[in-house]
């Protein structure tokens, strides 16, 4: 992206100086924040129509320089700005401000004059709408999609904060909200009325226009942090003055009744009770979204400290919102090994630190503190959310105590346990209806991972593949034989020797290439086959997994993740067990089928569920929750902090003392 031309922007609002994120976005957008008096070629910056804006307007008028109005973007943050959460995007408008109809803003001019007929742009907009809905995203995102909403069939009224600038700019006041409630009842006789309270009112910062005294047997206030998209889904009509949620109502398929003059009214998508005559163009909701979310805002990437696309911003907000929704109640972690605790605290310890406890005491602690209970998946607990390493884990082995860059939380089971449902299994079953934008993202991720030659552990290994025998080559990956994926996903073939013998029996003329598991090679876990060279034609002891996959025609496995990595590289995969990627029509399955796995998906759908929707990713550089693409960047560029020197020795000690679990747990 080319550097923008620089503009000196003189400000008279301390927020431009003290709010580092705002100042950084402005700097990247080409504005140098200054104090003093502007001269020719300079501009004055003001925050929307805030109480301090008249200062800057007066200076700009006296000095005859333009005013630049800055506002938060429509996708802002997880929490509220008044609670200190920083924005992910800004509106930088040189004409007006989007919520004030007195003067056309840059956004209104886009909606009026821009053709908005570019196929690629509109495809991005369609994908963007789907991403917002799937991620339950709005301006603020501290909602909990798991919270119930009223039974469908209600009329939804959207409250706002008293004297909000968007309300007063529309010429509205408390009487307008009373009038809106009256019309909602009159136009929908007998229907229930649900009034959605504003997030800042829920947060105790500002009063709304509706209070508890308005409630009746017909009217109720929704004062819980529910998903706005879930609330819109159950509504039969939506009434608003100027709330951004009216915009989201359009995206959800409604034609909201609008009593103010927000940016989204006047384009044929709303029932306007206060028309704005200069807006005469009819737009589709996709065109409206393209202008408001893609063309108008400036978006920021906190991981690389640069401006970015809307798609990158929405992926960032999805990751951050998911982490906040998982963690806001706090966690009690049961029976966690000492070395894992620091990582779990970093990943799951915001805003409330993780409490560590043992055995049944952990359950009691969680219940007493109203926290969620987590346990490592290998414990087999059924009263907790299970935690396990993700599929792009680290640069180094877990057995060497290398901290993970990704973890999965599963509230149903765990992905490697074929004996019961898991959250991943549910995601894959639903992936047949994946939208085009999500499919494109998954396809791009596959290309990036394969081009960068990434795997789960990303070890720097040598190569020994130059002189492989010619013929039909089959890679047979060894596994850790006490691994839970074998215990819970294999019936007949459960050992590396058994796997080798079964593959040789089924393929007597093929070139069998056996690759022991890295933890087994390192002497940290069981599963060694001392005479593997008597069954296989080649035993690989140095080659990396990706080089090995590239060198063969197909892979035969019990439940190894290497089978999934082979699918990414379009290799044929035969499964003698039931790993998470089997049973969907992508593998040759030789074990008993899992009848719950009913969907038939393609590779993009499998990858979206497995690598995008299921795991949580943790950026080791910024310490933030992040999308998978950031982890790919870090691994590809080797931008991952090196582990401490003691890790290897501690891992060896852990192996020697494995039977003394009390030394590792409290």
Secondary-structure-based class equals alpha/beta
Roughly how much helix do the residues carry, as a percent range?
25-40%
Flag low-confidence runs.
646-666
Average residue pLDDT? 92
**Biggest pleated-sheet summary:** 7 strands, mixed
Q: Please state the overall shape, judged from the principal axes of the Cα atoms.
A: elongated
The portion of residues forming beta strands comes to 15-25%
Question: How many angstroms separate the termini?
Answer: 52 Å
Number of beta-strand segments: 26
> What count of helical segments does DSSP give?
24
Strand order of the largest sheet: 2-1-3-4-5-12-13
Q: What integer value in Å does the Rg equal?
A: 28 Å
